[in-house]
Amino acid sequence: MTMNRFAKDMIRRLLQATFAVALLALPLQAQAGSRIKDIADFEGIRDNMLVGYGLVVGLDGTGDSLTNAPFTRQSLQAMLERFGVNIRDAGTFRTANIAAVMVTATLPPFARHGSRLDVTISTMGDAKSLQGGTLLVTPLLGADGEVYSVAQGAVAISGFRAQGAAAQITRGTPTSGRIANGAIVEREVGFELTSLPVLRLSLKNPDLTTARRVSQAVSTLAGVPTARALDPSTVHIDIPERFRRDIVGFMTEVEQLQVETDQMARVVIDERSGTIVMGPNVRIDTVAIAQGSLTVRITETPQVSQPLPFSPASTAIPGLSGTSAATGSVQVPRIGPDGQPVRNAQGNFVFDTITQAVPGTGTPTIPGSAAGGAQTVVVPRTDIQVDDQNQRRLGVLPRGVSLQELVDGLNALGVGPRDMITILQAIKAAGALQAEIQVM
């Protein structure tokens, strides 16, 4: 009796635990989707590109040559003149320890005075490497021509270059580098969130369905219909009165909303690398596929024909007669290790092509290895193979197959990535591929 009661208690507890887990899983399933923060940006809150021109000094002979990079020479002269050093009257001077570079950086939104930025340095002239160099003070300008940041510091590169008298080795890209926290923000971008009368969301992947779902989610959060989709990429949001004094809080809640995204069926193809990316909504109608191509492989394997040591100036060829005088390339029998002409399985002589023959009359001869006779020549060898891939079969893909079924069907036909590109384009041309093809 006690055991039955114990078993009933255990079963009841297991059922309660299972029901509790199911209840916990329901909110997770209901929230399945993407955050608005990940699929859209608020208009006006964006990065700004900065660029500047500067000089890197301290290079170990791997900088610009002043004759091939006149802008480096002019920049060096202008820099030294600012320090009171006049070299314009010094005539010709040489240095390989300096390089002209372009400096780029990204100014994030709401960056304040004194904030630090990472900068990227890239050479402009014929400098070989920036290893060991130091960037001098370089102002970074925005699109409006104003200076927003100033960069300076030691350059760190990910590659290297080593060179000797007869060889050199390069790893990575030694002509570009970075300076972590190498720039200081000197000017702020004027932008105040509290002054915004309305908010606008810009979708990263424009889609009408997704834009409408975003507007519905925002209106549900606000409790009133404050959001509406203007176009596939823009959602207009009127700030609710209860969030007027806390715009940042309202934007935070909007970013955390979960929305199920939608997208057009698309196939992206990169023909250079043979890469194919297909979305989950790709479908095709019933279509029959047979793919094959003619492959011709021609392999050239030149071989060296080396005569036997101390062989006579010429060797008579048994069974042949006639005049052997010739100029240019001629066909001569191949000589085996035993000094006799080589025959094939049918008993015929095997001939080689040589670029020089020994003049003479009577019985044809082959040059020997005595003084003035034997010569080492390069004999061409050509191997030709033809593959018409006639073992490929015709495959039929039914209507409405999924992405996985499409890939499995093409793989079953023995189709590689590059052949698959051609097949997908042909299916699209036939009107059976219900997706957009985008070629990169």
Description:
Helices cover 21% and strands 32% of the residues. The chain has helices spanning 2-30, 36-39, 70-82, 208-222, 247-255, 403-412, 417-429, and strands at 34-35, 40-42, 48-57, 98-107, 116-123, 134-141, 147-154, 160-163, 168-171, 176-185, 198-203, 227-231, 234-238, 258-259, 266-270, 275-278, 283-284, 287-289, 295-300, 303-305, 314-316, 330-333, 351-354, 365-367, 377-379, 382-387, 395-397, 433-434, 436-439. The chain has a six-stranded antiparallel β-barrel. Strands 2-11-13-12 form a four-stranded antiparallel β-sheet. Strands 16-15-29 form a three-stranded mixed β-sheet, with helices on one face.
Distance between the termini: 75 Å
* Main beta sheet strand tally, sense and closure: 6 strands, antiparallel, barrel
In helices, the fraction of residues equals 10-25%
Strand content: 25-35%
Domain tally:
4
The helix/strand class is alpha+beta
Which segments are poorly predicted (pLDDT under 50) over 5 or more consecutive residues?
Answer: 17-31, 319-327
Q: Which radius of gyration do the C-alpha atoms yield?
A: 38 Å
- The whole-number mean of residue pLDDT values reads 77
Cross-sheet strand order for the largest sheet: 3-4-5-10-7-6
| Global shape | flat
| Strand element count | 29
Q: Helical element count?
A: 7
Short description:
This protein has seven helices and 29 strands.
Record the SSE blueprint:
Blueprint (H helix, E strand, L loop, with lengths): L1 H29 L3 E2 H4 E3 L5 E10 L12 H13 L15 E10 L8 E8 L10 E8 L5 E8 L5 E4 L4 E4 L4 E10 L12 E6 L4 H15 L4 E5 L2 E5 L8 H9 L2 E2 L6 E5 L4 E4 L4 E2 L2 E3 L5 E6 L2 E3 L8 E3 L13 E4 L17 E4 L10 E3 L9 E3 L2 E6 L7 E3 L5 H10 L4 H13 L3 E2 L1 E4 L1
